[in-house]
Amino acid sequence: MTTVPGRRSSTFTRLLRHGFIDPSAAEQLLDLNAFASVRSDPVLLEALGATADPDLALRGLVRIVEAEDEGERQVLLDTLVTAKPLRDRLLGVLGASEALGDHLARHPRDWQALVTYEAVDLHPGVAEFERGLAEAVDPDSLRVAYRRCLLTLAARDVCGTTDLAQTAAELADLATATLRAALTIARTAAPEDAAQCRLAVVAMGKCGGRELNYVSDVDVIFVGEARDGVDETKAMQAATRLAAHMMRICSETTVEGTIWEVDANLRPEGRNGPLVRTLSSHLAYYQRWAKTWEFQALLKARAVAGDPGLGAEYVEAVSPLVWGAADRENFVPDVQKMRRRVVDNIPVDRIERELKLGPGGLRDVEFAVQLLQLVHGRSDASLHSGSTLKALRALAEGGYVGRADAAQLDEAYRFLRSMEHRIQLYRLRRTHLVPEDEADLRRLGRSLGMRTDPVTELNKAWKRHASVVRRLHEKIFYRPLLDAVAQLAPAESRLSAKAAAIRLEALGYADPAAALRHLEALSSGVSRKAAIQRTLLPVLLGWFADSADPDAGLLGFRKVSDALGKTPWYLRLLRDEGAAAENLARVLSAGRLAPDLLMRAPEAVAILGDPEGLTPRTRAHLEQEVLAAVGRAGDAESAVAVVRGVRRRELFRTTAADLIDSYGTEDNPAEQDHGALVDRVGSAVSDLNAATVAGALRAAVRARWGDTLPTRFAVIGMGRFGGHELSYGSDADVLFVHRPREGVSDEEAARAANTVVGEMRRLLQLPTADPPLLIDADLRPEGKSGPLVRTLKSYEAYYRRWSLAWESQALLRAEPVAGDEDLGRDFIELVDPLRYPLEGLGEDAVREIRRLKARMESERMPRGADPTLHTKLGRGGLSDVEWTVQLMQMQHGWAEPGLRTTRTREALAAACAAELIPAEDAQTLDEAWVLATRVRNAVMLVRGRPGDTFPSDPREVAAVGRYLGYEPGHVGDMLDDYRRITRRARAVVEERFYGAA
Alpha carbon of 168 to those of 157, 158, 251, 956: distances in Å? Predict the structure, then answer.
């Protein structure tokens, strides 16, 4: 084929027009002598251009033609141009599958399997595939015969003769025939084993559900029984050898490649259990030990090979167990666990290309359908199907899923599975990743009928269908619940009240009747408010069910909605601000504290929709707001009421941010730096309480003296308050110090100072809807026996003459928090030599501190408390870590500036940097301190009142676990981890504090 130099041939142009990417290479291939009789035939070019990848199809055809001898070669080419069915089938396969092209190049005569076009050929079943495999006598011949059958199956698929469901069913039928052939080969190889046992092969997973992929592990379970007169142990050994040989025949790679892996890991005890069990052994395991996911897997169990009677007995015996799984004790936590997508093990760079496990992937649809089958199949046999699409159709027909939702999911699932099929067909490799290469995407798009701009069209369709799945896979659990109570479409099948209650109970709602009443109140009617609620609730219900207390979440949402439902912005906020609704669901269902704070002023829900709304306000910002509010108020009581309202709002902001960061959201994973979480909460609550104290002080002074108190007055934060480490339930430990103004007598100054202290404490504890702030001054000189407030000189005289070791230690946390700044600085200058003594502590002082610590451990531990789980006084808890750090501060603070801080973690890091403690020991103490602090915060968040140990109520302790990052059902792991971490910390304390080394 010659052309004028510089000009393209007409063939080149035609090839380009027919979709070839490399027309020059294609033109050279067509110029081969073997194609002389057909190269100019327009039918061939048109057929090649109709394939998914014309270049690949032509290369595959060339390889077949070159592999044939001359006589057969011409038969192939003549048939190709004269018989459209063969042309479409053969070229269609070659353009979609490089692997099947390789097979045809090795076995060129197999193209003749595509010539027949009988009615039975259009929809073969197991029997037809068994005939196709009948001549296989060893693993190699089985592989060749399998690929020949797969060739005809793929041809029907790419030509559109079969749809997705039919193709998946045929793949499962071919797998069934292959398992039978492999078992026959294994039996022939070991007739003595075959004579001793009955062996049944039960397909699971996609093979069991007759919805197999082109390349997928074939999941099976083996059931064996001894034949009459044979010892059971010997029979099971024989059955195990047969089963293992059958698996190797299918799985091993030979010169003809492999078929697929046979995976028996769904058997009882998984890899650790025997490969073959008797039927009674299976049942004993399922009745006593099986987990919910194992019953979910058994949904698809189907006897496919071996002894048909034994296989049928197995399926019949396990069926009642499957459909009774929803009645099991641990069904709800198991379901909560299973409903969380397992994406942690998917590399970040792959998650967006994952068809199966990624967001909006196939697993979402399959899990949702299977869960609804388990919940409702116990009372409705129409749901007993192993096929995802058939089960989805049955769920819609029974009213368990809305028809429109089911139709959208069906369409999306078919598209995603078709993508998966075509991706795997290309190289016959097990993968669920969408390719990144442009040529691969083009072939994939064209194989699905996209010809104008296949890459763009494919990506658009894929994202659209994944979005549908992502949006609906949760909603299909809950939308029918709303239909059941709202009753807006009389003609539509809907859940009965009983079925709705069963579903709610299965999803974790302890009081489904109350939940249905809440749903009815929220969503019934034709108002715009009810319509928006019906849009929001399916998603919210899923988030509530993902928590430790779904009932509380739904009740809280009803209360907030009742309070704010008539305001124009509330529902609009939840509907339009993507994060607001999820944030609200997390906050309402995670415990009592945050919802209680929100219910006192529901308008604070607006914080959850503001991108900056969850960021804690600085102390300067808070003090400015508080002092301005006090200045506008008419009297002290109303001033402090405003101040306490600000505190309540900011406490809600802090608790909400803590919960959302700890739980994570769909778009933002949970915060992994737990130390940062603790520091944020401690700083935020400490700053908030400091601003509150400053506001109360200003209100108390203004009510009696106007702008100037007769004495300079400062509030010194102590303990966790001074250390910026307050938890939600902490009191505010303080000292009060004053210094008379010039010309004011000591008596008048003292009266004024005491009056201010009394008024502050009264104002901050007035009974109102807002949480009180308790002021604790017990760390003052002489404790409860000493005066509440002293002058700076009085403090100086006391500390010089009477100060005890524990008082110097307590002063390590002293930091001014409110009042006269100069007086606060002077107080700090006064106490610095006490808390950081020159040359450190003497031996007597160290012994006294150790004695006090040991006495506290023995006397202050609450009676009946578990010392291994008490966060404050228990083994390796807060007290252990803090006293160890404080001892280092008092011994070395005079020489190491980094130790002169009121913050525990900061001081510990400085001690490590100064090589006063090994890095490993410092890490151990820090981990224990952070964990104990988080547990205290969690207890307050969950119970609404402070506590130093884990709750005893199962739902409360589960909520603490969720806050700490433990999945449902792992409370035991949480307690074990706490004991392990604090035990290690105690060992460091013994060495570093008590000097046990």
Answer: 10, 13, 20, 46
Burial code (b: 16+ CB inside 10 Å, e: under 16) for 347-365 equals eeeeeeebbbbbbbbbbbb
Q: Which of 278, 282, 248 is nearest to 263 (CA)?
A: 248
Report the C-alpha gap between 693 and 402 in whole angstroms.
56
pTM: 0.74
Angle, helices 331-339/497-506, rounded to nearest 10 degrees: 70
585-587-592-596 Cα dihedral, nearest 10 degrees: -100
Rounded to whole angstroms, what are the CA distances from 987 to 91, 332, 851, 929, 994?
73, 39, 18, 14, 10
Question: Which range is least confidently modeled, 148-157, 361-370, 531-540, 612-621?
Answer: 531-540
Where do runs of H (alpha helix) occur along 765-901? 792-801, 805-810, 821-835, 843-859, 878-892
Cβ pair 727, 933 in contact under 8 A: yes
Tell me if 311 sits within 8 A of 198, measured CB to CB.
no
Cα–Cα distance for residue pair 321/29, rounded to 1 Å: 61
DSSP 669: P
The pLDDT of residue 888: 96
Tokens 């002169």 found at: 900
Task: Tell me what the mean pLDDT of segment 624-650 comes to.
Answer: 92
Determine the Cα–Cα distance for residues 947 and 277; give it in Å rounded to an integer.
50
pLDDT tens track for 219-256 = 999 999 999 999 999 999 999 999 999 999 999 998 89
| Structure tokens, 721 | 């308050």
**Which is higher by pLDDT, 182 or 367?**
182
Helix (H) or strand (E) holding 226: strand 218-226
Q: Could you count the other beta carbons within 10 Å of the beta carbon of residue 330?
A: 12
Cβ atoms of 222 and 264 within 8 Å: the answer is yes
| Distance of alpha carbon 378 from alpha carbon 536, whole angstroms | 29
Please give the Cα distance from 900 to 885 (Å, whole number). 11
List, for residues 769-824, the tens digit of each pLDDT value: 788 889 999 999 988 889 999 999 999 999 988 888 888 999 999 999 999 999 99
Distance of alpha carbon 978 from alpha carbon 972, whole angstroms = 10
Q: Name the token pair of 71.
A: 């006589």
CB atoms within 10 A of CB 647: 25
Q: What is the mean pLDDT of residues 407-436?
A: 96
The owner of tokens 């069963």 is: 502
Alpha carbon of 650 to those of 195, 638, 679: distances in Å? 77, 19, 16
- Taking alpha carbons only, the member of 300, 294, 296, 285 closest to residue 266 is 294
Q: Please, which residues have CB within 8 angstroms of residue 751's CB and are 6 or more apart in sequence?
A: none
Query: What 3-state DSSP class applies to 274?
Result: coil
Host H or E run for residue 306 = strand 302-306
